Amino acid sequence: MDVTTLAAVEGNLATIGYGLAAIGPGIGLGILIGKTIEGMARQPEVAGQLRATMFIGVAFVEVLALLGLVTGFIF
């Protein structure tokens, strides 16, 4: 295998790897946001606290997605 073919294969594997790495945070965001909305519907008086906690959780989940993206560039 020459260098160009090897680089193309590594690039394709990195793309597939990031796609697989984005599945987890995507599922996590869906669960997190869905449960927050459910909690707000059940107890509207704590909506502000739930929203603030949700945004902190969203930030942590998004870090996982960005970590998968950066890992594809490093390796």
From TrEMBL:
It comes from the Bacteria. One of its GO terms (cellular component) is plasma membrane. The record marks 62 as: Reversibly protonated during proton transport. The chain crosses the membrane at residues 12-33, 54-74. Pfam families: ATP-synt_C (PF00137). GO terms for molecular function: lipid binding; proton-transporting ATP synthase activity, rotational mechanism. Residues 14-75 form the V-ATPase proteolipid subunit C-like domain. Keywords: ATP synthesis, Cell membrane, CF(0), Hydrogen ion transport, Ion transport, Lipid-binding, Membrane, Transmembrane, Transmembrane helix, Transport. It is found in: Cell membrane. It is a multi-pass membrane protein. Key component of the F(0) channel; it plays a direct role in translocation across the membrane. A homomeric c-ring of between 10-14 subunits forms the central stalk rotor element with the F(1) delta and epsilon subunits. Belongs to the ATPase C chain family. This is ATP synthase subunit c. The gene is atpE.
